[in-house]
Design brief:
With 100 residues, the chain is an all-alpha fold. It has helices spanning 4-24, 28-53, 57-87. The mean pLDDT is 91.
Length: 100
């Protein structure tokens, strides 16, 4: 039987990989995937706590969180594709849409 500490350690490792990816990478698609990785790491931690305490409320919350993440992925990828069509680059340092 695998204990809760292994799941939380895996969740922490995935979250740190996501943070490092967001801070280091310049490609918008990779940054977007790292944000999704961090979201899934938080979902894994929430799911492991929920299973440890025997509560189904956390599992339902993770289900709704995954549904919101799927919708966020669609909108995020659509924005990245629109930026690529206008600027022909997904480098986040070259795209400055909010500057005058």
């Amino acid at each position: 039987m695998i204990g809760i500490d292994w799941y939380l350690a895996l969740s922490a490792i995935l979250f740190v990989i996501g943070i490092v990816g967001v801070l280091i990478r310049r490609n918008a698609i990779v940054v977007f995937m790292c944000v999704e990785l961090m979201l899934n790491a938080v979902n894994l931690a929430l799911l492991s706590f929920s299973a440890y305490h025997g509560d189904i409320g956390g599992m339902i919350l993770v289900f709704f969180s995954l549904a919101v993440a799927a919708a966020e992925a669609v909108v995020g990828l659509a924005i990245i594709i629109a930026i690529f069509r206008n600027h022909l680059s997904v480098d986040i340092l070259k795209v400055n849409l909010l500057r005058w």
